Fold this sequence. Notes:
The chain is an alpha+beta fold and 275 residues long. The protein contains 5 helices and 12 strands. It has helices at residues 7-13, 81-90, 192-206, 223-234, 240-247, and strands at residues 23-35, 47-55, 65-66, 69-71, 98-103, 114-123, 136-147, 150-156, 161-172, 177-185, 251-258, 266-271.
Amino acid sequence: xxxxxxxxxxxxxxxxxxxxxxxxxxxxxxxxxxxxxxxxxxxxxxxxxxxxxxxxxxxxxxxxxxxxxxxxxxxxxxxxxxxxxxxxxxxxxxxxxxxxxxxxxxxxxxxxxxxxxxxxxxxxxxxxxxxxxxxxxxxxxxxxxxxxxxxxxxxxxxxxxxxxxxxxxxxxxxxxxxxxxxxxxxxxxxxxxxxxxxxxxxxxxxxxxxxxxxxxxxxxxxxxxxxxxxxxxxxxxxxxxxxxxxxxxxxxxxxxxxxxxxxxxxxxxxxxxxx
Length: 275
């Protein structure tokens, strides 16, 4: 490789065709927890976690489902791209976003070498005022099962059921870091199953030491409703005393009372924002 004595000398000799280029995309994982239909009006509404997917209308992967995403513009700030893409792909804006991971598998996109910076968004879909685009659909996560480091996730939108299976391999014992490999998938485009699993695990890990869950809650809620949300994300039941310890400094009791629907009247709480 030729060496240069100055920046000016380098620029005079610079030919952009000498460098192979990468393309950059932003993909957005949008998760929500909401009530499901419950035939027994005396029971607290069940909760289900949902993910928002887009049906592709062009190649590659035409007619397959994927996360909302798109290419980052050449003159566009990276942090601006997911907000623009979110509005274009789903008609949603002004919602919580955090950067998740960067995915750069060599074969993740058949068109070219594409690196994706993924983002996670958490919302309460029952409070959405915007109408989703026609090719967008909420899929309930009806099964999130792990056995022997093999994870199977089943998604259902009421008309279609899709699934994928991922193998986890421990790569660093000291940090408990895993690499993920898709074992089975025929319904979701690109490597988006990896993004979905990464986001679900990030959400579980952050649940106890952050207030991230309140991005998925309505303004007012009962403790029973909040506990159901924690349980559906964690995939397990929580004992009442343990749950109360987790949220005791995160919520504040209000004078509002929830009545009707066959339940005992319950005081409603709201998120206690940090000062």
